[in-house]
Amino acid sequence: MAAGLCLAQPAAAPASGSPQGGLTFGTTTNEVIVPVTVTDTKGKFVSDLVQSDFHIFDEGREQKIDFFSHEESQPVVIGFLIDMSNRMKVQWDRYKESTSELMRSLMPGDPRYSGYLITYGTDAELAVDTNNDPEAMVQKLNRVKPAGGAALFDALYMACTNRKTVQGEPYQPRRVVIIIGDGHDSASKKSLREVLELALRNQITIYAMDTVAFGMHNDDEENLLTLTSQTGGRVEAPLGEKMYKDISGYLSNVQDAGNYAIQVGVGGYTAEIGKALFSAVADLMGEITTQYVLRYHPDFKTDCPPAQAACEDTANKQYRKIKVSVGLPNVIVRARDGYYPFAVPQQKPQQ
Fold this sequence. Notes:
Number of helices: 8
Number of strands: 16
CATH class of the largest domain: Alpha Beta
Strand content: 15-25%
Shape: globular
């Protein structure tokens, strides 16, 4: 079956499994979808809000919310992007188990929930195309072993250009990508900037489960922070803050494997890893399936005379900033940073 191309600016979603052709993008955006997460200052979800509590601003201009939803178990298509580089070898069995749990939980056999698996080592591979059965992905994970480099950006590009689509994307169901890795990229042909723009054009929310152990942080994790924060997702760090959030004095106990307060190789350490991974999986599940979803038709009009250049610049911006606010004190609102309102110029056919 031909793989479908995720539409960069979808005017209407394709039928399930329909091919989208080459890299040509269609019409301008006529509706913007904005999944929103609201928490208190301690990270607890605020789940009792109504549409009138929300205000959404497009380049500073408040917009009319045309659609609002906060249903449990919202339909979603989830891409699992799994790092298969050498860096995953130490904790691979544990991450394989937790990822399998996440797949089964987010895809319970209901046709409203779909997923696909992309593994990335030196090359990115669409290991399992979009479907409703998590067992195909679980079985694939059981057969692979980490080795080689990391082509994270190519994997994200593949998620947006080379998989079967589901009718209704990206509105019903929404599009989500979960990266299981440390953000390192050593082998991609694509760049961070390219794939971030493509993810925003495809209205994808990106989450990440950071696989770096506590005390071993590196600059590559900034890639995860950039991808998640600008698309409205976030990073879970199960072997970092989750595992050590209730422990003090850990920096005085330095080992070759990192700065651990819990002795590596003992039963307590193994138990704490399992507990932290379970907590990370539960948090990702809860957020993905219970977000608020807002949709609006952008109002590009301005209140100032057309002759003023500043107004024209605002109305014709190639990237428009979004801000979502809630009329409550002491809450944290997380949503995508913005969107691209205009179509990408179509590529000319090769002669």
